[in-house]
Amino acid sequence: MFAHAWGTIALLASCLVSTSGAVTYSPVKPPSYPLAVRSPYLSAWIPGNLVASLPNSNAQFWAGNNLVWSVIARVDGIAYNLFGVASPNDNTESATVTAATYTSTHSTFTVTAGSREFILDFFSPVSPKNYVRQSLPFSYLTVTVTAGDSAAVQIYSDIDSSWTGQTSDSSWSYSTSAETGLFQIEANGAATYSQNSNGQALWGSAVYATRPSDSSSLSIQSGPRVSVRDRFIINGTLSGNHADWTSGGVVGFAHDLGTTASKSAVTFAIGHVREESINFLGAAQTGYYRASYESTASAVVHFLDDYASAYRESTDFDGLIDSAGTSSYGSNYSDILALSVRQVYGGIELTIPNDSLDTSDVKAFIKEISSDGNINTVDVIYATFPIFYSLSPEYLKLLLLPVFEYQGSDAYTKDYAVHELGANYPNATGHPADGEEMPIEESGNIIILTYAYQKASGNTDLSNTYSAQLKQFAEYLYANGLYPASQLSLNDALGELANQTNLAVKAAVGLASYGALTDQTNYTTTGKEWADKIWTDHLGTDGAGTRFLIQYDTTPWFLVFNHYPDVLFGLKVFPDEAYNATADFYPTVRGTAGVPLDGAINWGQTNWQSFVAATVTGDARNLFISDLHSYLANGLNTAPWSDRYWVEASNGYSAGQSYSFRARPTLGSHFALAALSGADIWSS
């Protein structure tokens, strides 16, 4: 009763948080809006609490460092700062922000400047089944002046070398192709595959491009920021001159729309291009799109040509995410899914070999953003997999392929699955000797992920090709899974513990998944026998069978999320009574802002809350979804949505504030409940 009443109050409260001052936020004001989020290195955001001051607030890289990206408009000769002008030039005014909206692919801001209204649409395509479109390392910004009183209108935008990760020594160039103007900015002397302390790529090029619209003429200029902007503010056009790069300098475009009362729009493409994008076991990988568009110029021209088609797809995709969320658990849940999508796919890159550009050899690489920067961490793929199960099962295969290939090489000799492919993205050069080991965790994960791919796609190619490895990991689980030795689990903050209940659950579900994957019922039977010991015989529960414990025969309780694949796959490893008991128990231990990961700590993770929400029903499910939505909309956070937060006030933080992580692609876990409704629901 308490959980239901609290969830109703939270729902009403979230509906009321739709305006702040003069700004209307739809559906809610999130911690941070995705602006250009397409890869771990093209990841620009604006904190929700800066939207009201959007004209004078910088975009930020996912790590929180500022990126210079500005938009200025002139209306009848008066210059208005629309976005990103943190240090305004003289003789400019700030536009007034009136509305902010996000969908799964768009973040849109409405501003008023003089007699006209402008809409800034930051559009990062998510096209999971169109590998060319998804792999293009660019994002769109469309600036639309809506219909109104006749006025002379010009639109200006610029970026600087902050996008290269190197502001002390860079260079820039300008070129044209098919009416498209293209600026590229590079950090000088940077080593391939190197990053700065904020995780920005130091090699490659930042790209800014545009072309004249049907109603605009285009001018360009590069040079010192104040002088380039002054030129536009005074004249409405740029000089066409290109000064040498200087610290604080910008590259800028100006569109002159003339005198018009009609709706008009101009579109910019922003990106970060690295020809050698991933180091996979010493061989360079490159973006999938380069098989079709090998040069940066041809790629960005295509990207702008593709705008109308990509926009149409985004409308359908946004509608699907909204309907999938609403039909699964209401509009609060659709709000959660919509904000999660770009963060997930923006942490992944689709690649092919740089030498052959062979599109039959496609792989995917995922960055463990903000937590430790590992590449293709198997448990991160596990945390993310519900979104792939729902929308793009092939991604499970593409992410696992490099893992299987490495495990099959002479460089890997363990009899359990590897933790990751390298300590530092983009170097997938192999698991370091001093790296984390999670033998049961990752062995169970890789079996479960392979079965998720097979069940969602209907394809057996992965399990057939790597049958020997999968059998090896199943045998490891069989020999070691019921009474796990002291070792790390996915929640490595717990440290190395013996007889972890959640690890034993992973082993039981992993064995049953292997049985289903290979049609070997003896493994499924073993998994169920272990579940019976863990649950019915109270090996992993309190004596009354009301809760699962962190370790056998010890307190405190633990939020057991490894049940989720059992429910998703319909394996019935654990009996309904286990899920009914947890549904009754978890609401009784809810903290101020949510259910913690276990009874000894004051923080929770949205990943595992989402997994558990899919295994329980009734008031408990409502509790988890309501808490997640309240955390999304509480106004206490500014980082790209963190999957870990304080559920009680701790260490100087309020309940509901994020804890450490930011921008991690593991928000794919938020699709756990939606995935129960069916696999592979998106058709491109």
From TrEMBL:
List, alphabetically, the InterPro entries matched: Glutaminase_GtaA, GtaA_central, GtaA_N
Keyword Oxidoreductase among record annotations? no
What is the top-level taxon of the source organism? Eukaryota
Q: Which residues form the signal peptide?
A: 1-21
Write down the Pfam families for this protein, in alphabetical order: DUF5127 (PF17168), GtaA_6_Hairpin (PF16335)
Q: Which stretches make up the Glutaminase A central domain?
A: 330-673
> What sequence ranges are listed for the domain Glutaminase A N-terminal?
105-322
Q: What is this protein called?
A: Glutaminase
Origin species, per record, is Penicillium argentinense
Ranked from the top, the taxonomy reads: Eukaryota, Fungi, Dikarya, Ascomycota, Pezizomycotina
